[in-house]
Please model this.
Amino acid sequence: MKKILGKSINSKQELEFIMTCLAIICGSCLLIGFLRNLTLSYQLGKDDTDNFIWQILPENITLTAMTICSVLIFLLLRNVKKGQFFTKWNSDLIMLIGIVTECNGLVQMIMRTFISGGSGNSTYMIYVLLGVFILFIACLFKLGIRMQEEQDLTV
Model:
């Protein structure tokens, strides 16, 4: 028995607690992405400079990627709650999360390099590295599923 917040819990309760926390984080990301996109749209209507769209576009792309990943994580959590852990659908969801994260990093890199002339920070490298790591985890997940299927056939 483990303790969370001073209470003794079993593994099922621990999983429920973790899933609730992740669902709250995903919901918060969706809400923040939506509200931030609304404020960026408002600022776009207010600001009449020629390059304002190029200033807010990188952030808007990241917020969109964050929103998509939040929805995919929520779908993954829903499958786990149903007891579907190592399935092709879950591995595909993990792969999509990695692809969205990787694409966000690559688009940020292209925008920083070609549009703004390479000026600015290099935070896009975090997205590229994180995307590669998530894709690696998805490949391991698929390999584990294949090994589990082979083991089920031999038993």
Observations:
- Residues 2-154 form one domain.
- DSSP finds four helices and two strands in the chain.
